[in-house]
Amino acid sequence: NVTPDGKEPKPILAIARDAGKSTGLVTTAPVTHATPAGFAANNARRGRQRAIFEQYLERDYDLLLGGGHRFFEARGNQWGDLHAEAKAGGYHYITDRAALHQAPESDPRLIGLFADNNLPYEVDRLNGPDELHKTVPSLAEMTDAAIKRLSKNPKGFLVQIEGARVDHAAHSNDLGGLLHDQLAFDDAVGIALDFAEGRDDTLVIVTTDHGNASPGMSSGDNLGDDNFTKIDQIRSTIGVLRSHLSRDQSIPEIKSLFEKYMGQSLSENEAIFVQRYLNGNEQLPYRRMNNPNAMIGQIIANHTDIGWIGNHHTSEFVMLSAVGPGSELIQPFTRNYELFGKMVDALGMQAWRS
Predict the structure, then answer these.
(1) Residue 252: how many other CB atoms lie within 10 Å
(2) Which of 324, 301, 308 has its CA nearest to residue 194?
(3) What is the pLDDT of residues 65-114, one digit of tens each?
(4) Terminal CA-to-CA distance of the chain, rounded, Å?
(5) Which of 8, 20, 80, 113 is the most buried (most CB within 10 A)?
(6) Burial of 53 (0-12, 13-18, 19+ CB in 10 A)
(7) Pairing relation of β-strands 157-162 and 110-113?
(8) pTM of the complete model beyond 0.85
(9) Residue-wise pLDDT tens digits, 277-330
(10) For residue 305, what is the DSSP state?
């Protein structure tokens, strides 16, 4: 929210706050990351996440749930922690899943930071150490907690909810990471739709800011069911698999690790290629894809027929859908910069235009 000529337009969360509505940010990234900050902060550099956190507290937003513990706590002599400011603002501060469920629903003033940086990928949260599942809430649980608290305001509320790690997984060509986080996001959408059902005062918008890596299934011979069965066997992200791979491993060891974490039975030639790549004796011809994550992603593609065109943001049109009052303002084709005005108009906050 900084224009090329240095102006700082008021973000939509601040507009909602000034209209007397409750406000919240929910994400599986740090709460100060680009998307939530786009709804709430003004800063010329997205990387200044500590300053963005300070701005949230100064602007008196009600609820922050996600990662980013490192931007809240003290870090050596660089900065002090923000506990005093949070306490002065009346926030209840929590750091684990049990505390989220126990926090009083009557008070919307809540900061929940469940990871130092990003929250774990959903596939790792579900299949990793028990501690992850016990301490880190799902996106749906955070969504439910946010709506229950913010909706008690008779003037209404605005909450931004982000399944951030879908994008991160696409950057890594990580099929298991992407699909499990997409399903976790779908669960969160379900919570929002359940709340909105039967109401005439709640608008739910679902969209994304861009595509990434364009994963797609390319299967002949009616192999779709078989491929989805193979995808369902994936039990971790590529990052977890890579943490167990090393240059000195034998072919049987490599095959065993792929079986354990990716659920796929590598051929002898595939395992040999992985071994040679890890030892610097193989390269992938497309330079953008010549990295360990993309190499593993393409090995998995041999088994699932899910391919990738790269490992960065892509230019295709993306889904935009809405249900509830104000959804009629959103046309089948909407330019991204038009959505801000449509959202504030739907919320009856036209005063921003002045």
Answers:
(1) 10
(2) 324
(3) 999 999 998 776 666 788 889 999 999 999 999 999 999 998 889 999 99
(4) 17
(5) 113
(6) buried
(7) unpaired
(8) yes
(9) 999 999 999 999 999 999 999 999 999 999 999 999 999 999 999 999 999 988
(10) -
Tokens linked to 83:
């506990």
Distance CA 173, CA 300 (A): 10
Q: Is 157 helix (H, G, I), strand (E, B) or coil?
A: strand
Spatial CB neighbours of 339, under 8 Å, sequence gap ≥ 6: 205, 207, 320, 330
Residue in the block written with tokens 């940010």: 25
Are the C-beta atoms of 342 and 330 separated by less than 8 Å?
yes
Spell 136-147 as b/e; 16+ CB within 10 A means b.
bbbbbbbbbbbb
The Cα–Cα gap between 85 and 72 comes to: 10
Q: Are 314 and 210 in contact, with CB atoms under 8 Å apart?
A: yes
CA angle 340, 323, 215 (to 5 degrees): 75
Question: How far apart, in whole angstroms, are the C-alpha atoms of residue 172 and residue 8?
Answer: 34
